[in-house]
Specification:
This protein is α/β, with parallel strands linked by helices and 280 residues long. It contains twelve helices and seven strands. Helix 1 (10-26) crosses helix 2 (37-50) and helix 2 packs across helix 8 (162-171).
Length: 280
C-alpha cells in the first residue's frame, strides 16, 4: 500500500505501526465493516497486513441506508477484500424495538453474533470493530456487547483518535478520509419512541432528500410525528431559503411527518443522548 509518509508526523507513524503490529499478532480477522471512516481504515490496514486472512462483514437491515451498503461493497471490491453482507433483523429484539437507552447493545450483540458465525465458517480466529479512543467517553452500549463477544478494537489499542484516523486515511489515499460521520438510522429516534420499519424508511428517505440537495452533514431526528432537522449552523441559512424550505417541507410531509422543524443549535453527534444527561 502506498502511503505519503510526509503527511504524517512521527507520533502518527508510530501509532500506525502499532496498529499494524497488533493486527499482525491476531493472524486472521473478520472486520465488522460499516464503510465509515474508522472501519475503512481498520479494514485497509488489515488487508495490507493479513492479505487474504481478513474478511469484511457488513450487517444490513432497515436501519442501514442502501447507499452505505453500496459504498462498503465498492470499497472492498476495489481492494480485493472478501466481503460478506449479512442480513439481520434487530426489530425482532424487544430491547431494540422498544428503543431504550441500551438499544445499541441489542443491535450490536445480534450483528457480532452473526459475524462470529461467519468468521468460524471461514476459519477466521478473531473479530474486530472500528471504535476509536474518542468513543470511550461517549455513551455507547454497543461497545459492551462487543466486549462480551470478545470483539477486538485495534484502533483503540493503537491509541488512535478520530482526527488522526482521518489524517492517516488521507495519507493512504482512502476515499473515506473526508466522509461525514454516520450512525445507523435508529439513532434518530428519541428514546422510548418505538422503532418500526416504516419510520426507518421515512427517516432514510428524508435524509436522502437533504443529501441530494447538498446537505452532506445532516440528521433527521424523529420525535413522534415531528421531524427535527440538524445541519451545520453555517448551512441553516441555505436550508431556510424559500425554494429549499418549501421543497423540504413538501417532501417530508409527503413521507408522513406532520411537522417539520429546524434545530437552531445545528448539527452535532449524539444529540439524542442529551435526554439521558438531564433526565428528560
Amino acid at each position: 500500500m502506498k502511503i505519503n509518509k510526509d503527511d504524517l508526523n512521527e507520533e502518527l507513524l508510530n501509532k500506525l505501526k502499532k496498529l499494524e503490529t497488533y493486527i499482525e499478532s491476531l493472524g486472521s480477522l473478520a472486520v465488522g465493516f460499516s464503510g465509515g471512516v474508522d472501519s475503512s481504515l481498520l479494514l485497509a490496514v488489515a488487508k495490507e497486513v493479513l492479505g487474504d486472512n481478513v474478511i469484511a462483514v457488513t450487517g444490513a437491515d432497515a436501519s442501514v441506508p442502501e447507499r452505505e451498503v453500496k459504498e462498503a461493497t465498492e470499497f472492498c471490491k476495489e481492494r480485493g477484500i472478501k466481503h460478506i453482507i449479512c442480513r439481520v433483523n434487530p426489530l425482532s429484539e424487544d430491547g431494540y424495538r422498544h428503543n431504550g437507552p441500551d438499544r445499541c447493545y441489542f443491535c450490536k450483540h445480534g450483528i457480532f453474533t452473526e459475524v462470529k458465525r461467519i468468521a468460524d465458517e471461514n476459519g477466521i480466529s478473531f473479530m474486530a470493530e472500528g471504535s476509536n479512543v474518542d468513543d470511550i467517553g461517549d455513551y455507547r452500549p454497543g461497545l459492551k456487547a462487543a466486549a462480551e463477544l470478545s470483539v477486538k478494537s485495534p484502533l483503540r489499542e493503537a491509541g488512535l483518535r478520530k482526527n488522526e484516523i482521518r489524517m492517516i486515511s488521507k495519507a493512504m489515499g482512502l476515499p473515506t478520509w473526508s466522509k461525514p460521520a454516520y450512525a445507523c438510522l435508529a439513532s434518530r429516534f428519541v428514546y422510548g419512541e418505538e422503532i418500526t420499519e416504516e419510520k426507518l424508511y421515512m427517516i432514510d428517505q428524508a435524509e436522502q432528500f437533504l443529501i441530494e440537495h447538498g446537505f452532506l452533514e445532516e440528521r433527521v431526528r424523529l420525535h413522534g410525528n415531528i421531524a427535527r432537522i440538524e445541519v451545520p449552523a453555517k448551512d441553516i441559512p441555505k436550508l431556510v431559503e424559500e425554494d429549499i424550505r418549501e421543497s423540504v417541507y413538501k417532501r417530508f410531509t409527503d413521507l408522513g411527518f406532520k411537522f417539520v422543524t429546524i434545530d437552531m443549535k445545528g448539527y452535532r453527534l449524539g444529540s439524542m443522548n442529551a435526554t439521558l444527561n438531564n433526565g428528560k
